[in-house]
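Z., the sequence and structure:
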Amino acid sequence: NNWNALAFESELLLAKYKGISVQQLHDIQLPFDVTGKNKERIVQTRVNQAFFRKAVLASYDYSCCITGLKFPDLLVASHIRPWALDEANRLNPRNGLAINALHDRAFENGLITIGTDYRIRISESIKRNKEHITHAYFMRYENEMIQLPKRFIPDPAFLAYHHAERFVP
């Protein structure tokens, strides 16, 4: 009945299992605060990210390029070439895809990609998963064309980069 104590105990066990300290496990200072308080941090914020999101989603008519899902709260303006790697194209809408959160996560992790022919490719690790739900969410889109936007069609060079550098076949 004490979730805070359970969380702390679990971290201690994980650190012990890995043969490291809790400090090393989470880069934290002890004594560890088991009350779950908030901590203030200075973080960098992506300035003009809202512009990128609006431009990308509007060009896809607020619809997922893979599934056609029209629910903006579940859509991401995903960078094809990551924000951190290409400063010149951070806000370029041709470096973006309107994609639902699940497929965005798979795209970011290289489990799916989109070829320069705008066809969806699925990684072998997903293909090996034989669960029905995997087929429903991924396999049914294998080799299908994405829904192209009205404007700002994804730059083939960015798609080639993603396929070559991020996709895990």
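Strands lie at 75-79, 96-100, 112-114, 120-122. The two ends are 45 Å apart (CA to CA).

Let me know what you think.
H.
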